[in-house]
Design goal:
- The complex is a heterodimer of chains A (235) and B (249).
- With 235 residues, chain A is an alpha+beta fold.
- Chain A is built from nine helices and five strands, in the order ααββααβαββαααα.
- Chain A has a five-stranded antiparallel β-sheet, sandwiched between helices.
- The mean pLDDT of chain A is 90.
- By secondary structure, chain B is an alpha+beta fold.
- Chain B is built from nine helices and five strands, in the order H-H-E-E-H-H-E-H-H-E-E-H-H-H.
- In chain B, a hairpin with a 2-residue loop joins strand 1 and strand 2.
- The longest helix of chain B is centred in the last third of the chain and has 55 residues.
- Chain B is rod-shaped, with a radius of gyration of 29 Å.
- Chain B starts with 5 loop residues before the first helix and ends with a helix.
- In chain B, 37% of the residues are buried.
- The chains are: A alpha+beta (235), B alpha+beta (249).
- At the A-B interface, helix 1, strand 5, helix 6, helix 7 and helix 8 of A face helix 1, helix 7 and helix 9 of B.
Chain lengths: 235, 249
C-alpha cells in the first residue's frame, strides 16, 4: 500500500508539474505526455467511449498515437474497444502475433505499430473510456512500467472528470468545441439521405470505403462533406 | 529562463506537495456504495473492539428523507436505534442534530428519554455514548456506542471515538465526491451520444436542403425553438425519419 501511494504521489507530481499546459490540452493531455515520459512508450491517447459507438478523442501525446485511437473508432475494434467493454486492461506485447482484431492489426502493423497496452478508465460504477499506450517495438511492459501504467489510468480518470467539471472546463470538454469525429457523423447523415440508406448503413459505407482505399475514415468523411465523394456503390 | 530564488522554489515545492496529496486523496477516495457500507461496518466493529467500554456500536445517518442506521454490530442495537427514530428523539438523534457529544447512563436517560431508557435497560445496556458526525448543511449523523456497564463512558473512550468519527467524516466526504463524479460521468456519456446524433441530423439537413453545415445547424436550432423540443430529441427524429425513408425506398 505504501509503495503504491509513493508511486501515485510521484506520478501526480509529474502531472501537476506540467500544470501550465492545462489550458491547451486539459489535464487529460498532460497525463498522455506523462505516460510517454514515465512508461517508455512511444505515445498514448485517451478516448471517451459511450453508448452506440459514440466516442470522443480527448487527448493524445502526438499525431502518431492519435491515428491509432481513430483507427479503432473507424473499425469499431481494437485493444481499447475491448478494454472498455471487458472492463480490464488489454496488453499486447507483439501485435504481429495477434488475431483478435484483424482489421486493426492489418493496418497498424503495416504502419509500424508493434505493441499496445489499453487500460479502462473506471472506478466503481463509473466507466468513461480508455487510456491506450502505443509502442514501435514489440516488448511487454516491465513490472514497474505496468504498475505506473495502472496508476496513470487512475490518474487519467480523475484528470478527465476534473477537465469536465466546474466553472472552467478544459477546451476539449466545452460545449462549443466540436466533437473530434463530428465530420464522420455529419457525413453519415448526408450519405444516408443521398443514398436513401439507414444511418448504420451509411456509416458502414464510409467505413468500407476507408478500408478498401487504405485511407483514414476522417479524410473520407471530409471528402463527402466537400461533396467530392458520393459513395454510390458499396466500394 | 530566469533563475528562481531558492525561497520561491521552496514554497512552490511545498504547494506542489499539498496539491499532490489532495489529488491523490481524491483518487483514492473514489469508491462504490458497497465500499462505504463496508467501511462503516468496519468502523462499528473497530469501535466495539478497540474502545474499552464499548459492547456494541452503530452509525446513524440523518437526511431529508429520515434517519437510518447505516451500519451496526448487531440487530439488537439496530432495533434500539430504530426505536429512537420512530419516537423522534433519543441520544443518537440528539448528537446528530446538535452536533454535540451525548454521554449518559441509562439511569440519567430515564427522565429525558423514558422509552429508550427502558428498552436499552431491558436489552442489558447501562450507558450510552454518541459522537456527532459533521458533514454539511444537508447531512449529519452520529457514531453510537452501547455499554453493558452502568457507570457511563470514560474520557478515554470519548477521545478514541474522536479518531473514528474523523475517519467516518473523511470517508463520507469521499463517497459524496464519488457520487458527484458518477453523476458527471453519466451526463458526459449522455452528452456524447446526443452530440453524435445532432451531427448526423446536421448532415441530413445539409443533404435535403442543400445548405452548409452552419446553415443546417441554424435550421435545426430554429426548429427546436419553434416546436419547443430539445435539440437532441429533434435530431433523433430526423435520424429516425431518414432511416424509415431508407427502409421504405
Amino acid at each position: 500500500m505504501a509503495v503504491h501511494d509513493e508511486r501515485r504521489d510521484r506520478l501526480w507530481q509529474r502531472v501537476v508539474g506540467k500544470a501550465a499546459r492545462r489550458d491547451s490540452t486539459g489535464w487529460a493531455g498532460i497525463v498522455c505526455q506523462v505516460v510517454v515520459d514515465q512508461v517508455l512508450v512511444d505515445g498514448s491517447a485517451i478516448s471517451m467511449r459511450g453508448a452506440n459507438r459514440s466516442e470522443e478523442l480527448v487527448a493524445a501525446s502526438d499525431d502518431w498515437s492519435r491515428q491509432w485511437d481513430e483507427l479503432q473508432y473507424a473499425l469499431g475494434e481494437g485493444p481499447g474497444v475491448d478494454a472498455h467493454t471487458e472492463g480490464g486492461p488489454v496488453l499486447v506485447s507483439d501485435l504481429t502475433a495477434e488475431s483478435r482484431w484483424p482489421g486493426f492489426t492489418d493496418v497498424a502493423v503495416g504502419a509500424g505499430l508493434r505493441a499496445v497496452f489499453a487500460f479502462p478508465l473506471q472506478t466503481g460504477a463509473i466507466q468513461l473510456g480508455t487510456l491506450t499506450m502505443y509502442r514501435r517495438r514489440p516488448a511487454a511492459l516491465t513490472a514497474g512500467e505496468l504498475a505506473d501504467a495502472a496508476v496513470l489510468a487512475d490518474v487519467a480518470l480523475t484528470a478527465l472528470l476534473t477537465d469536465i467539471d466546474g466553472e472552467d472546463p478544459a477546451y476539449w470538454a466545452r460545449e462549443s468545441t466540436p466533437s473530434h469525429y463530428e465530420d464522420v457523423s455529419v457525413a453519415t447523415g448526408m450519405l444516408a439521405v443521398q443514398l436513401q440508406i439507414s444511418i448504420e448503413d451509411a456509416f458502414a459505407r464510409l467505413q468500407a470505403h476507408a478500408f478498401s482505399h487504405d485511407r483514414p475514415l476522417l479524410e473520407i468523411a471530409r471528402d463527402v462533406l466537400r461533396r467530392e465523394l458520393r459513395l454510390d456503390s458499396p466500394d | 529562463m530566469t533563475v528562481e530564488p531558492a525561497e520561491t522554489e521552496l514554497s512552490w515545492s511545498s504547494a506542489l506537495d499539498d496539491v499532490t496529496a489532495a489529488l491523490g486523496a481524491l483518487t483514492i477516495a473514489l469508491g462504490t456504495d458497497d465500499d462505504l457500507t463496508m467501511l462503516l461496518q468496519r468502523v462499528c466493529e473497530q469501535v466495539r473492539d478497540a474502545l474499552p467500554g464499548v459492547d456494541e456500536a452503530t452509525v446513524t445517518m440523518l437526511s431529508a428523507s429520515g434517519s437510518v442506521t447505516a451500519a451496526s454490530t448487531s440487530a439488537l442495537v439496530r432495533a434500539l436505534d430504530h426505536e429512537q427514530y420512530d419516537s423522534g428523539d433519543g441520544p443518537c438523534l440528539q448528537a446528530a442534530r446538535t452536533g454535540l457529544l451525548v454521554r449518559v447512563s441509562v439511569a440519567q436517560a430515564v427522565h429525558r428519554w423514558p422509552t429508550f431508557a427502558t428498552s436499552a435497560s431491558n436489552a442489558g445496556f447501562g450507558s450510552f455514548l454518541s459522537a456527532p458526525l459533521l458533514l454539511d448543511d444537508q447531512h449529519a449523523g452520529a457514531v453510537n456506542c452501547y455499554s453493558s456497564a452502568g457507570h457511563g463512558f470514560a474520557e478515554l473512550d470519548v477521545k478514541l471515538l474522536g479518531l473514528y468519527t474523523t475517519a467516518v467524516e473523511a470517508a463520507l466526504h469521499g463517497h459524496r465526491r464519488y457520487l458527484h463524479a458518477r453523476e458527471t460521468a453519466e451526463q458526459l456519456r449522455t452528452a456524447l451520444a446526443s452530440r453524435a446524433v445532432i451531427d448526423q441530423a446536421k448532415g441530413i439537413v445539409m443533404a435535403v436542403r442543400q445548405v452548409s453545415a452552419e446553415q443546417a445547424f441554424a435550421l435545426l436550432v430554429t426548429q427546436s425553438q419553434r416546436d419547443n423540443i430539445k435539440l437532441k430529441d429533434l435530431a433523433q427524429q430526423f435520424v429516425a425519419n431518414a432511416s424509415r425513408a431508407a427502409h421504405d425506398a
